[in-house]
Structures are given as C-alpha cells and as structure tokens.
Amino acid sequence: MTTIFNSTDMPDDLRTQLAAEFDVVDVPPGTTTGLADYGTPAAWLLDGDTVVDAKTLAQLPSLRLVSNYGVGYENIDVDDATAAGVVVTNTPGVLDNAVAELTLALILGIARDVVWADRWIRAGHWGPEWAPLTNDVHGTTLGIVGMGRIGRRVAELVAPLGIRVLYHNRNRNAEIDASGLAQYVEWEQLLGESDFVTLHTPLTERTRGFFSAEDFALMKRTAYLINTARGAVVDQSALLDALTSKRIAGAALDVFVDEPLSKDSPLLELDNVVLTPHVGSATVQTRRAMIELAVANVVAGARGERPQTPVNDLAG
Questions:
Q1: Residue 316: what pLDDT?
Q2: Contact of 161 with 138, CB cutoff 8 Å
Q3: Are residues 291 and 245 in the same domain?
C-alpha cells in the first residue's frame, strides 16, 4: 500500500477516506530528522511549521509531492524540491474571501476605533464622559498593494462603501483596469493618496522587508497600514518607528515576523494598533476547503496524477 505522510490535524472523515486507499503515517509537525524511520512516502500532507529543503528531501527519495496546507509556502524550498523532482502544491483560491473579509473588518475596526471603544466602555467610562468622534470610511481612498485574487476581492467588498480604490503591482492587471474596480497608479501616488494601505503580497526574497521607512515617509500622517499578508514583508523597526512617532495614524495587523507574538512585543503597548492572531483564513468553512484541497493534492501525488494547484512546473 502506498504511504502518505501526514503532518496536519486532518478531520477524521478525510483520514478515513485516505486510509481506504493509502497507508497514512502521522509525522509530528516540525520533524525534519529521522524521517526515514516513518516509512517511504510517495506524498506528504504538510503543515506550515515543517521545513522542507535539500536535507529534508535527501531522507525521502521516494517522495513525489508535498502538499502544503496553506497558500503560503515559505517553509518549502521550491528550488530544492524541483531539483529533487518533487512537486510542491498549496491551497490558493479557497481562502481569498475569508482574508478579504478580515481585511475589511480591520479597515472598519481601526477607522471607527471599535477595539478601543470596547475597552473604554468595559472600563466604565461611558456615562461620566462621551467617546471621542471617529472617522467615516465613505469617501476615503484605499491603496491595495498586490492585486491578485485577495486584492481583487477586497476591492469588490469595499466598492459599496463608497471607497475609492487604487492599486499597485509590478505589472498592471488588465482585467482589473477594464472592470473599473480599481485604478492603477505608481507607487508614490498610491502611498501619498491612500487613507488605508493594505498589503496582499506573498513573502519572497524580493518582498521580504520591502515596505520600509521610506515608504512610511510617503504615507499621509492620517493613514493606516493594514497587513493580512505576511509580517516579514514590512520592515519591523520602520513599522514601530512610524507608529510610535505617529508618522502614520496607526496599523491593523493580522501577521507578524515571529508568531505567536511575543508577550514583550512593543506592539502590545501601542494604542494605535489593532492586533489579530493570524486568523485571516480561520473560518470553519475556509479551513475545511483548505484541507480538502490539500488532501486532493496529496492523493493526486500519491497516485502519480497531476495535482490541482502545483507551485512548481513538474506536474506535467
């Protein structure tokens, strides 16, 4: 029976389906040594905490595919996998709406001070005093950095709110231009005109730390940064400086360089930041769709078939 490694918290019904055809072997998440002791897998259903590189792959010469449970795959060295003849897959598409919805929630939440207001009323301030005024989002400008599937869905969600949408990509998106959902502008114009700047770029060596102090300097002092992509696409020291100096009005962050966020993180001391614990895709419906796609990919790999969402070009 063909072996599949599993390093995810797979639902029982999907495990039962796999076990009817394959030998499913659980490998603890994060395991990168002694892998041969677990067997000779054809495919590996992988969590985001397990590093797959040349050293990992050298232990598993039978491996044909790694199916990453998540859209991001920075834990996998795709070049090493390609050199070893191993297909890499991820779960794009199924989480677009959930991440876009959280982005909208963060925009509304930070503009209307929802988190602050909740703490304020719980502290007993309502009555002796009135809460300060907040700001409309209607009539504001949103700058989307990375007009892919998630960026497009964000543009669709904010359209009924009367928000003007700008976007910037390395390449213009002809479909978006034709749709009228957003206007392509150069980088400096996006930062200079946006009341909210939302990041939707993958983490690569090119994008790591790309949002820098120079970029914060181009933003309005009344503007907010929204990040539901990856924490490391923003220079963290520049972010802290922009927030503490009030170079920008604030930020709403779902992702961080180090996760979970350290209990002594300076971000926790700032009152102009809204924090959520990397929950962009964390809905019941989305997580189910993600694991179903990841399982479908691992099954295809174990059968020697083409997976649905390959990252590298070995699938034929």
A1: 53
A2: yes
A3: no
Tens digits of per-residue pLDDT, 115-125? 999 999 999 99
Please count the structural domains in the chain.
Answer: 2
Q: Which regions in the chain score pLDDT beneath 70?
A: 315-316
Tokens standing for residue 293: 């796609």
Which residues share a beta bridge with 124?
Answer: none
In whole angstroms, give the CA distance from residue 48 to residue 33: 16
Does residue 138 share a domain with residue 30?
A: no
How far is 147 from 109, CA to CA, in rounded Å?
Answer: 22
Q: Which of 259, 288, 305, 306 is catalytic?
A: 259
Q: What is the dihedral of CA 145, 72, 282, 179, to 10 degrees?
A: 40
pTM over 0.85: yes
**The residue count for the chain:** 316
Domain of residue 77 covers 3-94+285-303
The catalytically annotated residue of 64, 153, 230, 287 is: 230
pLDDT tens-place string over residues 214-255: 999 999 999 999 999 999 999 999 999 999 999 999 999 999
138 is catalytic: no
Residues 84 and 122 reside in one and the same domain: no
Distances (CA, A) of 31 to 36, 37, 90, 185: 11, 11, 19, 45
Considering the domain architecture, whether residues 86 and 102 belong to the same structural domain is answered as no
Same domain, 102 and 250: yes
Q: Is 259 part of the annotated catalytic residue set?
A: yes
The residues near 153 (Cβ < 8 Å, ≥ 6 apart) are 96, 97, 99, 100
Active site residue 288: no
Catalytic residue among 74, 278, 292, 303: 278
